[in-house]
Design a protein that fits this description.
Blueprint: H1 2-25, E1 38-43, H2 46-57, H3 77-83, E2 89-96, E3 103-110, H4 124-150, E4 155-156, H5 161-168, H6 175-193, E5 204-207, E6 211-214, H7 215-237
Parallel strand pairs: 1-3, 4-5
Antiparallel strand pairs: 2-3, 5-6
Helix pairs in contact: 4-6, 4-7
Length: about 240
């Protein structure tokens, strides 16, 4: 099942590229895509993979020889050195979208150590939004509220969300523990705010890149930030 999901994801990308290829071939529109290079996919079994693309997407594939199995290639020292797979067996052939130059190359390598990586499927758009809100809470508002409440006109650092997204590699992170951290941080901030009286809303600080702000201003900015990302999440869910 997991293998089929992987194939399905590749097939989805293939369908998009196929549409681009047919648009370019008909000459519609300035700057239309008329061709691509070859995409190489490492597979467990080249014959089964080629059969999948032929049967599901009607792609052209090399014929199967009478032996019933496409042969392995002769050892390629340069290739094996590049992948550090000395002593391996390797074969590769391509499936091509009929009538185009678009193809997907299947490369199978045997007699090497294999490691299975469990498939983790998550919506990258929604996951990124959760991580953005989590980091702004923990690195931004939780610290800002604590400082403005405990110090006289403190300086509050800005949070560079774009830099943090790159450094933390959002696309590689599981959402569940990050969401738990967001819930912890938000609960701590709310608990602190509930201990204050209304006069604390006028406490001031210097927010980097913004200037003088009050606690009331910070809370309004926080609400706006949440509302914008909630709207994005609703858009992804529709």
């Amino acid at each position: 099942m997991l293998r089929f999901v992987r194939f399905g994801l590749m097939g989805t990308a293939l369908c998009g590229l196929f549409l681009c290829g047919t648009t370019g071939a008909s000459g519609q529109g300035a700057g239309a895509i008329i061709g691509t290079g070859t995409f190489t996919s490492f597979v467990e079994n080249m014959d089964r993979s080629l059969a999948f693309y032929h049967d599901v997407f009607d792609m052209d594939v090399p014929a199967v020889p009478e032996s019933g199995e496409r042969p392995y290639n002769r050892a390629n020292p340069q290739l094996f050195a590049m992948f550090d797979i000395a002593g391996a067996r390797e074969r590769h052939q391509s499936a091509r979208v009929a009538g185009t130059r678009l193809s997907i190359e299947m490369m199978e390598i045997q007699q090497v150590d294999h490691r299975t990586i469990p498939l983790r499927v998550q919506d990258p758009g929604a996951a990124t939004l959760v991580l953005v809100v989590r980091d702004i809470d923990i690195l931004g508002y939780e610290q800002r509220i604590r400082l403005i409440v405990s110090e006289e006109h403190p300086t509050l650092p800005d949070v560079d969300g774009a830099r943090i997204a790159v450094e933390r590699a959002y696309a590689t992170l599981p959402v569940e523990p990050e969401l738990a951290e967001l819930e912890r941080s938000r609960a701590a901030s709310i608990a602190l705010l509930q201990t204050l009286d209304e006069s604390a809303l006028d406490r001031t600080a210097e927010l980097e890149t913004v200037g003088r702000v009050t606690l009331r201003d910070l809370l309004e900015r926080w609400i706006t930030h949440d509302s914008e990302h909630l709207a994005e999440m609703r858009g992804l869910a529709e």
